[in-house]
Amino acid sequence: IVQPKIIKHELGSEFSQKDGLIDMMNKVDDSGRLNVMHQNVILGSKFLEEYSMLPVKVLNVFKGRRSFNRAAFLYKFLSNSRYKINIKIGSLLTTEKIRGFVGEESLIFQHSIESYIRSYGILEEAGTIHIHNCFDFISQAASKNAFVRFFGKNYYSDKKVQDAIQEYLNFNGSGIKSSLNIFEYISHYKNSRKMKKQFEYLQSYLKREVESRNQNQGSKKNAIDKDFIDLIRKHINSIFDQDYRLIVPSLLSFTRTYTLIVAQKLLNTLVDISVMPKIFRLLAEEQNKIIKKFGKSITLEALDSMEYLDAVIRESFRLSCPANGLHRQIQSVYVLSNGVTLKNETNTSFNLFTHLRNEHKFGKSAQEFNPETPISKGIKLKNNPKDEPIWGIGVNKCPFSEYASVQSKMIIAIIIRRYYIFSNTDGVDPVHPGYNHITTIMPNNTGIYLKRHNIQLYDPKIARFF
């Protein structure tokens, strides 16, 4: 039996864009155990096709996610069948449904972004504003939108709903029972019971919302959906069997994962833009052009026309994909094509970080940030080519990829329209700070500088804009 080799890496250590992690994966023949996570086997480019096509009886997605997130309280409420409700809700998010969200969401994002800058931005010389932590910056805007989008506008007027959601977001049901001491276990048990009551209240709230809207709107087929509750109420019998116990955990998981993932992804995008002034100028010119054509309001048509922004965000997402993601669990002894044996119940993950930088597959410029590449290939942010996946692999593509793409472009467009984005005030040439972490790829420096500007001055005919 050939055992996976050890991939040596220190948690929190820095790695650059041209990273030693690629060499490490090559040394273990694209299949190794991370020294800080011995229970997990990380696979690389050689096994993308296998990883994408193996049936669930060999590679189980739900068990892999549950094992990786076993400390997360929510998983106590999600069985395999219940987890599928996420996919069902995602399948309802058609382009036309998203169109109904865009107008209100753009206003929420604009207000949240400005509110954060006023409250937490550090005003420095000549009107420069320092944002120390872009993760917090984006997560605040994303969470405020999530609360309204997933739980409706009555979230604002129902303190119990606000408390229940916040309780869940703050709750850390950490620790496996065997590893908890008696005091930690008692605390964990009490918190779990408290959260169960919160779940029950959210179920009753959601039921009231659905029934109220059905009374007021009936079965109007052409009614514009403004939030997820509108989506759910139209299918409460046909898809969801009126089982609110299924729906509430899904909405809560959306709230958490949506906020965290959007913040992590767009944090990288903002840092990338901040160190590339030429790219920022092209982005600003594009926004100026789009405003002249569509007006200042951000519509789905305007977002669809943001070709260069689409490509910039896609490149940023590509270069910041996780080195330890797409979790699965082996359900029987399986021998990889390189002879390495994976035992039953082995937890596995895929290294998209090194795969998407693989120069043998994607050419010598694979590690470079080049928005012209996806444009020339005709690949949009929402697309998920099987050899260049950024939204999951195989049949497990993220069902919210189009929605996430729209929101990502909206958030960055709002910031670009109002602020010049840069990385330092020292006058030195900007350089990307490099990355750390394994599962969640984040730059070593999460701060940027902003300065309010007039987007109309960014015109290809104007040589300078300062």
TrEMBL record:
One GO MF term: oxidoreductase activity, acting on paired donors, with incorporation or reduction of molecular oxygen
Cofactor(s) essential for the protein: heme
Entry keywords, A to Z: Heme, Iron, Metal-binding, Monooxygenase, Oxidoreductase
Oxidoreductase keyword on record: yes
Keyword Signal found: no
Similarity section: Belongs to the cytochrome P450 family.
Listed name of the protein: Cytochrome P450
Phylogenetic lineage: Eukaryota, Fungi, Fungi incertae sedis, Zoopagomycota, Kickxellomycotina
